[in-house]
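Handout, page 2. Input:
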Amino acid sequence: MEKEEKVTKTLSSEKSEEDSLIFEREPVTVKLSLLNVVAVLVGHMKFTAQETRLETLRWLLWLNKKLPKRIYRQAGRLFPHLQEMLTDISDRVVNLALQVIATLSMSEAGQDSDIPSTTKNESLTPVKQNKGSSPDPSHTRRLQVTDLNGDKRYITLNKYFRLFLVELLKMLNCDRILLENKGRLIIRHLCVYVDARAVYCTLAEILSGEDELAFSGLMVRELNAILFSSAELFDLRMQLQNMEGHDSWVLFKTLYDCWCHNPVAIVCLCLLSQNYQHAATIVSRFGEIEITSEVLQETDKLVQLIESPVFTGLRLHLLTPHQYPYLVQTLYGLLMLLPQTTAFKCLQHRLSSVPIINAISTETKKKLETFQVYYHFVSIIWKWLIDDVPEPAGLDP
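Output:
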């Protein structure tokens, strides 16, 4: 028995020595084929199960965090499938897909390979694509962003950001149901993950060169509604409202060129930026265009928007109409444009609250006071002349 115990002890000691030798060996390096991993992920992106798609997108975010340069080389292969995931019925899938798209669009790995170039206008018509209408594959943008505190920072967007927006507009043009159901959600979340100014300026530049004017007007209407109703675009609204500095004027000019595709939207933009005189000029030209039911509906929504907190400053400007006469003129022009509906009564009631005394300019008041003094003086002299003229002699009473 003692011999057997000794044998087992020696065997166990030898086994422990072998284990210790195993742990002392160098770890085996396993090479990961990213192409195969991406191929598997692309296959899982086509699955209909929601959790499968979500986990696939999480894998892409993790790979971009660990291997940014290598995953960026596969971005051209991933973007078409990411774009297709925007049509998913689940908002969670759409939200996470936009996060992946924004991450790849702002990847620092693409800044070294992209070459800055001039902006080109792409055609969004899905039927034919000319050689000159294709987006520049080596386009990088560097935008300066200023927050409400006055701090400036730069955002560098690689070539895939503009390419994605071009393809997104093509998809929304072909699928109007997607535009109606998911369009505002996609734009809002994209503004959160990238930057509202970068998204709006790029979309405005693309739509400004679009040949299909009906689609451009429709997209401007949607972008204008998002601009004035979404909390995510508060900083962009404040920048347009304050109009302080060169950056704000560049932003206004970029949006203005695109917003001209929709007459009511351009009036709304001018009212937000306090360009009241130009807004009054545009409203006065409404008689030269065809006023359709869509224009009247958008004007109705504009009146409702004037009563919202976004235009609190505009309503306070009505307290001093002598300083903002073109604002009063613009609102009265919209009032004359509307049929006698609820919006007409609402705007009429608002304008009835404007102080009439203050509406008279200072120069007009001086002229009125001078005329009153002159009339009073003439009336006194006339009365004095009548009282002092003697009656003619020889006339019977």
